[in-house]
Amino acid sequence: MINLRNQACIVGIGETRYVRKPGSGLSQLALQLQAAKSAVDDANISLKDVDGLMPFPNLGHAEEFAANLGIENLRFAATVHTGGAAPVASLRIAAMAVCTGAADSVLIPAGWNAYSGSRARDTVSQDVSSLPGGAIARDYYLPFGLTAPPQWYSLMARRHMHEFGTTAEQLGAIAVAMRKHAQLNPNAVMYGKPMSLEEYMASPMITDPYRLYDCCLETDGAAAVVVTSVERARDLDKPPVSIVSVASGQPYPADEITNRKDFFRTGLTNAAPEAFALAGMTPNDIDFAQIYDCFTFEVLQQIEEIGFCDRGEGGDFVEGGRIELGGDLPVNTHGGLLSEAHVLGMNHVVEAVKQLRGDAGERQVEDARVGVVTGWGDFGDGSIAILSR
Amino acid sequence: MEAKPLPLLEGLSEEFFGWCKNGELRFQRCTECGVWRHVPREMCADCGSIDWDWQRSCGRGKVFTWTVVERPLHPAFAESVPYAPVVVEMEEGVRVLSEVVDCAPSELRIDMPVDVHFVAVTEEVTLPVFRRRAPA
């Protein structure tokens, strides 16, 4: 087997402003183009040098990106259809492309007007064709009012609470940590809006056990990264961030959430050990984690499935500041989907790069050398990347 | 008010809900290896057989997990809140997403015994729902 360990790098990152009211004022494509352009500029390469594109599923075609960006020689285009797991999963495909010569530089954009445009809650219940298992949801979930992601995943959260004694306060510790980190990030939508555990507990119930502040934000914004080979990266100005390893996985079955023999086995359960084996590392080697936080419990669950603690111990793990800056494992130093913005997890990749470049300002993790980024999508698809400076 | 979404009566779903209309909860069972399955699938994922039949469930199950929807995220359910989509684990081993119609969400308990029951929501569509089992 060919191990692509440290053979490809992230050399450019870009982000738009992240906003809610009144919205970005840009089209979904224009937003993503803005982030894409700034990622290419950050890499200090020419758009003419970009010859690979990996758009997020259902948010734009490679052809329209290329036409707008002036990419005249698009040699490689692909999309990984795993929802919010796609940005991190795309890092592996991009690494494969630049290491085999299929492309020299691959641009991975993601972004949407999830505040001012159509909301995720609507698209998943009304556009069954965009979701693997959409017809199953239509026929077997929607008639009973199970219509949107927080409802799907809260089924897992409740079961975890039953089996392991996980508490609302422990889920709250995750929401509070993300909010605390957002206070150090001027581009976070929740910058300037600190939140206590009491405020979390008092927030209205959305789908019990999920309160309002267990749920990610709906925001407008886009982010992008540029991936190239380690040889090419040596010629560029910015310190490259090395893609040590990436792995993806799916739960079983991936298209139906209720009939899993092991109810807590998600895509990450298989992907994480693979990523650590490819990297020759263990969870003890990790300085920070940017974890796809669509909802608080998914953070706890991923912490367990990555192996930062055993299954069932996640509740204790997230308490006492362990996942906050200054703790053993700072999680979502930018504020995450919960308190920075919902940029489909691409903002997690960008934040990991900032940390590893030492460019995270007030929220810099001291001496950050190796970090983990995860993605989560659809009914529990998972992806994980280990990145290093 | 928008009508609640209904299953599309096509293919295997048409068969599943057709049995419900008859007042029978039936799941596919592999005729090769005997494994029960839900939701309906074309092939037995345990042995690869494409041979199966619709076998009648005993109708008994227990609550596996649930969520209580307090803020509707779909307009058709705006007036139904609070309501609880419930996962029921049947004695055959398969799990079904449904609801427990005679139980307030606050009274649901994991492992609560429930029995299947049927509600005709339209002339064409009957949904399988559950009721608390009376103590023996």
Textual characterization of the structure:
The complex is a heterodimer of chains A (389) and B (136). With 389 residues, chain A is of the alpha/beta class. In chain A, 36% of the residues lie in helices and 17% in strands. In chain A, a hairpin with a 3-residue loop joins β10 and β11. In chain A, α7 packs across α11. In chain A, 60% of the residues are buried. The mean pLDDT of chain A is 96. With 136 residues, chain B is mainly beta. Chain B is 8% helix and 33% strand. Chain B has 1 helix and 9 strands; from the N terminus they run αβββββββββ. A 5-stranded antiparallel sheet of chain B has the order 7-6-4-8-9. The radius of gyration of chain B is 16 Å and the shape is globular. The interface between A and B is large, with 35 and 38 residues. β5 of chain A pairs antiparallel with β5 of chain B, so a sheet runs across the interface.
Topology order of chain A in helix (H) and strand (E) letters: EHEHEHEHHHHHEEEHEHEHHHHEE
Biggest interface reads: A-B, 35 and 38 residues
Order of helices and strands of chain B: HEEEEEEEEE
Largest sheet: spatial strand order of chain A? 3-2-4-7-1-8-11-10-9
Output the structural class of chain A.
alpha/beta
Tally of alpha and pi helices of chain B? 1
| Sheet with the most strands, sense and barrel status of chain B | 5 strands, antiparallel
- Count of individual beta strands of chain B: 9
Which structural class fits the helix and strand makeup of chain B?
mainly beta
Biggest sheet of chain B, strands in spatial order? 7-6-4-8-9
- Which oligomeric state applies? heterodimer
Question: Could you say which overall geometry of chain A the principal axes of the C-alpha atoms support?
Answer: globular
Computed over alpha carbons, the radius of gyration of chain B is 16 Å
Which blocks of ≥5 consecutive residues of chain B have pLDDT under 50?
A: none
* Mass-distribution shape of chain B: globular
